[in-house]
C-alpha cells in the first residue's frame, strides 16, 4: 500500500512539473549555455586530462652521467672502404633496332 501511495505522489509531482516546464520560455543564450553544459556533463568521462595537469613534474636528484668523449689521439685509425664507383665499367647503351619500311 505504501509503494502505491509513493508512486501516485511521484506521478502527480512529475505531471505538475511537466506542465510547469512546458509553460516556461527561456531566451536563446540560456538555451545555448544549457546545451553546452549538458554536452560537457555527458562527455565528462571521455575527456582526457593532459598529463601535465594530472601529475605535477617531479625533480630527480640523480645527476646525469658525463658524456664519453673519444680521445682523437688514442683512437684507432679509420677503415677506408673500397671505391666501387671508380672500379665499375662504363655501361654500354643498347639502341633498339627499329625496322623501317614495313607498312601496316
How would you describe what is shown here?
The protein has helices at 2-22, 28-42, 51-54. The protein is built from three helices and no strands. The chain is an all-alpha fold and 104 residues long.
What is the CA–CA distance across the termini? 105 Å
Low-confidence stretches: none
Radius of gyration from the alpha-carbon trace, in angstroms: 42 Å
Broad shape: elongated
How much is the average pLDDT? 76
Question: Which structural class best describes the helix and strand composition?
Answer: mainly alpha
Q: Order of helices and strands, N to C? A: HHH
Note the total helix count.
Answer: 3
Major sheet attributes: none
Assembly classification: single chain
Tally of extended strands?
A: 0
Helix content percent band: 25-40%
Percentage of residues in DSSP E strands: under 5%
Quick structural overview:
With 104 residues, the protein is mainly alpha-helical. It is built from three helices and no strands. The longest helix has 21 residues, at 2-22.
Keywords:
104 residues; mainly alpha; transmembrane helix; membrane; transmembrane
Task: Tell me the layout of helices and strands.
Layout: H1 2-22, H2 28-42, H3 51-54
